[in-house]
Specification:
Blueprint (H helix, E strand, L loop, with lengths): L16 E2 L10 H14 L3 H22 L6 E4 L2 H11 L7 E5 L8 H5 L6 E5 L8 H5 L6 E7 L11 H8 L5 E5 L16 E5 L11 E5 L1 H4 L40 H17 L1 H21 L16 E5 L3 H10 L2 E2 L1 E3 L2 E5 L6 H22 L1
Parallel strand pairs: 1-10, 3-4, 3-5, 5-6, 6-7
Antiparallel strand pairs: 2-8, 7-8, 9-12, 11-12
GO molecular function: transaminase activity
InterPro entries: Aminotrans_V_dom, PyrdxlP-dep_Trfase, PyrdxlP-dep_Trfase_major, PyrdxlP-dep_Trfase_small
Keywords: Aminotransferase, Transferase
């Protein structure tokens, strides 16, 4: 593996074992340097703005490469929740129309649609079977009145990976669009924006960047006429045009979804982090994550844990979730021993990324064994 994967490239990893990537990644030293570069350019007036434009375009080029799209297909907003809500509010739903979601979705992929029930939208919820939702499960709920299917590529809850390519192949035979949330996958496993209509992702998890940016990929094949119902000066062709008090002319590409300036500190950081991800190669990163994940799952099963995440590597990515009523207590105890996992919602989640190694796994299981010993002693 390339030298940049060394844990010394991250701030703080010398003091902890980090399996918290599904919540947020540890900060890269290079991202801090990139933010400093942004601040330095802020002091250069118009020259700073020129550099912002250059770095933003470079960031979009990188994101397009990761998504197998074009830079003009990429829009940068504030966060994923904003993007999903914008898309939800942009539909002209008729009473009796429906959208399809599932019960493994993060709330940001649920709440905007529930709000629209007030307007007569039917929200169909596909329920998981043993912590997985299949393409067939989803398509059973799709009919001629379905306007959109919203699903995550990888579930924040169970860690299961959905075959969205197969889903999209079937949805293209209908009038329903596909909105794919790749927040738990982009940067860890391959994602192809040509196999969905919209793809959304956050900047601060598997992309190894900072908070402050939501990424939208727009596949123009079926969405060229789709216009947002939110607008800002970045959305339009000529913000100072003589007709601006009379009419609106959106950009034809993904920029029509952008309202104002993005968080340029995050843009600079994401340009740096995506440079590194592309340098190493997402295919190789995926292989590393899945290999370590198999070892974690095997050890969890030997220890008697109930693993929610599929064992088959094709059906998972970096998140490995474990059924645990004491999920929060486990995460809190492990954190006190400098091992970071996410806990709550009846589970704890181990999220493996490119910098994790077998030594981390040993530390994780040592901490879990310690928790179990303490709990057994308390019971006695």
């Amino acid at each position: 593996m390339n030298a940049w994967i060394n844990k010394k490239s991250f701030v703080g990893l010398e003091d902890c074992t980090w399996f918290y990537n599904g919540a947020e990644a540890p900060p890269l030293q290079g991202c801090l340097d990139a933010v400093a570069e942004y601040f330095n350019y802020r002091g250069k007036g118009p020259h700073g703005r020129e550099n912002n434009t250059k770095i933003e375009q470079a960031c979009k080029v990188n994101l397009a490469r990761l998504l197998n799209g074009k830079p003009s297909d990429i829009a940068l907003l504030s966060n994923s929740s904003e993007i999903i809500s914008m898309i939800a509010q942009s539909f002209a739903f008729n009473k009796g129309d429906n959208i399809v979601i599932n019960d493994l979705e993060f709330p940001s992929g649920v709440l905007p649609w529930v709000l629209l029930k007030q307007q007569g939208l039917e929200v169909r919820v596909v329920h998981h079977k043993q912590w997985q939702v299949t393409v067939d499960d989803i398509m059973e709920q799709v009919d001629e009145r379905t306007r959109l299917v919203m699903t995550s590529h990888v579930s924040y809850l169970s860690g299961a990976r959905l075959d969205y390519r197969s889903l999209y192949a079937q949805l293209k035979k209908t009038n329903a669009l596909l909105l794919l949330d790749a927040t738990q996958s982009l940067g860890a496993v391959p994602v192809d924006m040509n196999e969905t209509d919209f793809v959304v992702c956050s900047s601060y998890k598997w992309l190894l960047s900072l908070h402050g940016m939501g990424i939208l990929g727009v596949n123009q094949a079926r969405t060229a006429e789709f216009q947002p119902r939110a607008i800002g000066w970045r959305s339009v062709h000529d913000m100072f045009g003589s007709e601006r008090f009379e009419s609106v002319k959106f950009h034809e590409d993904a920029r029509r979804f952008e309202l104002g300036y993005p968080s340029y500190a995050t843009v600079y950081a994401t340009r740096f982090s995506t440079d590194l991800l592309l340098e190493h190669g997402i295919d190789r990163i995926e292989q590393h994550i899945l290999k370590l994940g198999s070892k974690v799952i095997d050890r969890l099963l030997i220890c008697g844990y109930e693993v929610m995440t599929p064992k088959d590597p094709d059906n998972r990515a970096g998140n490995i979730s474990v059924v645990a009523k004491e999920g929060e207590a486990i995460a809190r105890y492990l954190s006190e021993h400098n091992v970071y996992v996410w806990g709550g919602d009846g589970r704890f989640r181990i999220s493996i990324h490119v910098f994790n190694d077998e030594e981390d796994i040993d530390k994780l299981f040592h901490a879990l064994e310690s928790f179990n010993n303490v709990r057994e002693s308390a019971i006695k």
